[in-house]
Amino acid sequence: MNTFVDLHMHSTASDGSLPPEELVRQVKLAGLSAMALTDHDTVAGCALAAATAAAEGLDFLPGIEISCEFPRPGTMHLLGYGVDIHSPALHELTRRLIAGRTGRNARMIELLQSAGIDVTEEELLAEAGGGTVGRPHLAAILVRRGFVSSVREAFNLYLGQGGRFYVDKETTTSRQAIAMIHSAGGVAVLAHPCQLRRENHAQLMTVIKSLADQGLDGIEVIHSDHRESLIDHLSDLARRLGLLATGGSDFHGSSKPYITLGRAGRRRIPREVFDAVRQRIAKRRP
Description:
Strand content: 15-25%
């Protein structure tokens, strides 16, 4: 069995550039043995990805990445692994979050148009191709239309926090997200802790300890945005708090071409990470 996995990636069901089935095939080509699909605020791609993974001989976990309330300039996302994609609680949460995204997209388009940047909602929906619509789709339009030279520039100037046309999105509390993930039979993991933007290790530990008290199961230790020193610190923190230490590339495809499936900087994610998550899921379910 191949010894590496990837537990954080996105398909066209949210803001990735590859359809779920093609993404799974790319995971296979990358020589990985297991994966989790973690689209933003939706599990719409999981059934097709699971079927393709079975055909390709890959182990698969259905997943989701949920946006949670958190003070600026940080952002908090929670990964849910092994969730029942038919859970009523999960579907109600994703319905609300996606409805919030729709309102947010409309407001950003209004702001862009008021500044003379002619982008339409129809154009944005076409760009998303039926998946959950998000800022990367809007950024791709701005690049193609020549308003900016790159997706990164679109976020820096217009769509990211501090950009001219940034609008906050619908979120839920971390406590509610963790409870929902657990009710759907999954385990809850803090995604890319670096994006909390805490000033020091003590502040970071305070946030993670609070999440652990709410029922958090793990920390995404290995991630493409994490330096080696942070990986070491998070690994130690996970051990001290009795949390799972997970990892993933956060692959999106063409919108983030510098990220490679199965790799997070110089690191790869070992198979035992996937097995530990799956064991925790088995303990949680009846």
